Amino acid sequence: MKPPEHERGAALLTVLMLVAIVAVMAGAALEKLRLSTRLAGNAAAGEQARAYALAAETLALTRIDAMLGPNVKRVTLQGDWSGKPFGMPLPGGGFATARVRDGGNCFNLNSLVSGRAGAYVTDPLMRPQFVRLMRLLDIPAQVGEQIAAGAADWIDSDQDQQAMGAEDGAYLNRETPYRTAGTLMTDPSELRAVVGMTPQIYATLRPWICTLPVAQAAPINVNTLLPEQAPILAMLFPDTMSIAGARQMILQRPPQGVATTDVFFKSAALQGNSNADGERGTAVVSKWFTLDIDVTVGTTVLQEQALMDATTLPARLVSRQWGEPS
């Protein structure tokens, strides 16, 4: 039976519509397949990059053990090991680069407290030192006092607010409420949550602070301090040394380092600087190291920062962080 004149082409239109629908569905399926393949490839490359980073960690730990050795009495910059990249060629054209640095030449934020009977209490000696560091970095004294007190309150176990400090009550009243940690900081970025902190002040402080997993100051190795790290040395003196004076002390250090800290601080005594706090917080060996790793596998780039504890040998890795430093 012949279809009516006005229905001619309806079958063709139906077929074309079905073809269009099938084409759209096929395109969507292919796109999902492409995306899944890409995600799987990225995941595999990421896992491979992490495996190479772990290999770099092992290599770095081996180098630290070899450098320290069982009877080493001083760690210096001789050998050009600090910050010098050592690479690992990888299969397929990839590459991994690692750099080891002294990880104890910084102000340990966790030294603002000391551990007693399973709790953390404020250490009255370290808060003024932190304030001195901030003052040397041109952070106003009153702001520095507030940040130091707030950081100590953030870590300590009690809810007794110090003068210019802040406990839970000060943070719970904010638009986005939160509480203090009541324990050691795990990353310097936690300082950004402390009362008085601003992005600008944090950016100024970040190169000079660290969060070692101990409630005590890390002895600063006078043999591995770089001239640009002079504020860390000047911080140890009770308002008697300038950054320029500290830099001069570092530049006058012999290339082979010093055997004892008192030899290093004799130059400070000759300059008329009191070293009441200075020598007590220093050493001629290094016990903490930081490791920076960059891995490239194809189009995948991985960054890692790690902290290694060499207080006892063999050295061990205590923390790692993936991605850009915070």
TrEMBL record:
One of its GO terms (biological process) is protein secretion. It holds the Pfam family T2SSK. One of its GO terms (cellular component) is plasma membrane. It is found in: Cell inner membrane. Keywords: Cell inner membrane, Cell membrane, Membrane, Protein transport, Transmembrane, Transmembrane helix, Transport. It comes from the Bacteria. InterPro entries: GspK (IPR005628), GspK_central_sf (IPR038072), Pilin-like (IPR045584), T2SSK_SAM-like_1st (IPR049031), T2SSK_SAM-like_2nd (IPR049179). Residues 105-213 form the T2SS protein K first SAM-like domain. Gene3D superfamilies: EpsJ-like (1.10.40.60), GSPII I/J protein-like (3.30.1300.30). NCBIfam families: T2SS_GspK. Belongs to the GSP K family. This is Type II secretion system protein K. It comes from Sphingomonas aerolata.
